[in-house]
């Protein structure tokens, strides 16, 4: 898409921090249920993008699908995050996985 570490890449990284601050300010005064709902919706949006990226390769044949499966740790976090958000109590193992 773009070369690594050009202005597009740096703006993309900075937009994450801007969105993080915006969502913090919007959600800090909301109830716990509203916060969980918004976080789950954000994770669902990320999972939809991940599935569309993975299955978008089907037009090139079924083998390309297996070459582009989401098996990286950051991609797997998308599918583990709902467990962390919904589970109450101690989440020592899940929290360590997410930090990894």
List unreliable stretches of 5+ residues.
none
Can you summarize the main beta sheet? none
Mean pLDDT: 77
Protein structure class: mainly alpha
> Could you give the order of the helices and strands?
HHHHH
- N-to-C span: 27 Å
Radius of gyration: 16 Å
| Shape descriptor | globular
Total helical segments: 5
Q: Beta fraction of the residues?
A: under 5%
Number of strands: 0
DSSP helix fraction? over 70%
Can you give me a brief rundown of this structure?
By secondary structure, the protein is an all-alpha fold.
Structure, described:
- The structure is a single chain.
- The protein is mainly alpha-helical.
- Helices cover 73% and strands 0% of the residues.
- Helix 2 (32-55) packs antiparallel against helix 4 and helix 4 runs antiparallel to helix 5 (92-99).
- The two termini are 27 Å apart.
């Amino acid at each position: 898409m773009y070369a690594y570490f050009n202005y597009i890449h740096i703006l993309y990284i900075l937009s994450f921090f801007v969105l993080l601050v915006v969502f913090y300010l919007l959600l800090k005064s909301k109830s716990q249920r509203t916060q969980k709902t918004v976080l789950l919706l954000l994770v669902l949006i990320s999972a939809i993008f991940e599935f569309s990226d993975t299955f978008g390769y089907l037009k090139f044949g079924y083998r390309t699908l297996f070459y582009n499966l989401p098996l990286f740790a950051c991609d797997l976090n998308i599918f583990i995050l709902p467990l962390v958000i919904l589970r109450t109590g101690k989440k020592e193992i899940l929290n360590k996985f997410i930090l990894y």
